[in-house]
């Protein structure tokens, strides 16, 4: 999952967005997300790197991008484990 998020965040669809605009696009309130809480969670992760809500995802270095992705995973409740695929019937 980490690799997929890394590819998504660094894609042309997201890499020129501020953190606030990233959240608005990735986890919009119309999908019952609390955008403010999401932004705060992500900013909390990258703040030690001197970044804030208006920082662009495309300007993140590997260390801050790694923290950003880990914050997305925590906020979404991702857990490592086994994925079982079942055929659609």
Question: Helix count, per DSSP?
Answer: 4
Question: What is the chain-wise order of helices and strands?
Answer: HHHH
Low confidence ranges:
none
Shape: globular
The amount of beta strand, in percent, is under 5%
Q: What's the average pLDDT? A: 92
Q: What is the percent of helical residues?
A: 40-55%
Distance between the termini: 26 Å
Looking at this protein, list some descriptive labels.
mainly alpha; single chain; 89 residues
Task: Describe this structure as you would to a colleague.
The radius of gyration is 14 Å and the shape is globular. The two termini are 26 Å apart. It has four helices and no strands. Helix content is 48%, strand content 0%. With 89 residues, the protein is mainly alpha-helical. The protein has one domain.
In short:
Helix content is 48%, strand content 0%. It is mainly α and 89 residues long.
Which SSEs are present, and which pair or pack?
Blueprint (H helix, E strand, L loop, with lengths): L1 H8 L9 H8 L8 H12 L15 H15 L13
Helix pairs in contact: 1-4, 2-3, 3-4
């Amino acid at each position: 999952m980490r690799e997929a998020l890394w590819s998504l965040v660094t894609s042309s669809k997201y890499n020129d967005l501020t953190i606030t605009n990233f959240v608005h696009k990735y986890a919009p309130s119309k999908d019952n997300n609390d955008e403010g809480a999401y932004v705060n969670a992500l900013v909390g992760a990258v703040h030690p790197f001197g970044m804030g809500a208006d920082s662009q995802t495309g300007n993140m270095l590997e260390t801050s991008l790694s923290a950003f992705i880990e914050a997305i995973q925590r906020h979404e409740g991702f857990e490592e484990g086994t994925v079982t695929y079942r055929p659609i019937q």
